[in-house]
Amino acid sequence: MTDPPNRPGRIALMAFPGVRAFDVSVITEVWGVDRTDRGVPAFELRRVAEGPAAVQLRGGLSLSPDRTPAWLARADLIVVPGLDDHVTPAPEAVLEALRRAHTRGTPIAALCGGAFTLAQAGLLDGRRAVTHWNLTALLSRTHPEVTVVPDALFLHDDNIWTSAGTAAGIDLCLHLVRTMHGAETAATIARSMVTAPFRTGTQAQFIEHPTPRADRDADALAEVRAHALTRLAEPHTVAALASRAGMSARTFARRFHATTGTTPMRWLITQRVAAAQKLLERTDLALPEVARRAGFGSEITMRQHFAAHLATSPRGYRLAFRDGDAEERG
Known about the structure:
Shape: globular
Number of strands: 10
Helix content: 40-55%
Order of helices and strands: EHEEEEHEHEHEEEHHHHHHHHHH
């Protein structure tokens, strides 16, 4: 299956002294590993830097560039790693290259403190952005023209993506893959990385509750989520799920939110959208049957949730992401 032209295949990793080795590794792991034998597109990941010299990273590591900023004109997506020192200015050549790329309409994503680089370039002026929860005050203070959102895992505003700290960079990269190449491709990459293809909730679950609840409650909530996931086609209510966990509905909802960062019903809808995505990609099932198996009950309800979560319809999603050789799996 060849990628249609609107699916980015050329990825630029923007490198300069001070970028974080962890974020460089995340970008490389997502787009720089050949997984074509498992149906993942053949991405072209390029390491873009101001010049040919190796870019020094913390811990004695270095990154060897293979393209100059001129290559950004060919890139389908530009990813900016986070920074070790968030107030150190990026090279002007890098900032100018990012400005030109945004003017051309190229999507740009920044991981964690990479938001500071985009802010230095003026690309976040008047826009919403997120960074690590411990850096939100610094970003607001040093770049008051940016609307800093304190608790999102990642955000999209005018073709620019920003993410929260560390692991949220993985979330954003997989989300970009899922949006541009489909849920199955993102899930395949996530499985090879031994991570979840997506997480629900916000940074609040990490800021407000840095220590877990009692093991008994955590185990009960995990069992309830597993139960719901294996029975998505069945109706589920907060009261029924709470009863299974041995809690009152109010206690269950409160502890579920503390653990996941979202409500039980929002979590369930997210899982149903993901299940429907896989069915649309993998099978020839009629849309009403996809809706039934995913637990939406009706095609109309499924269509409403696809519009809200993916800004497309189930039919449009299938046309964009399904494998033409897929056979019905009953």
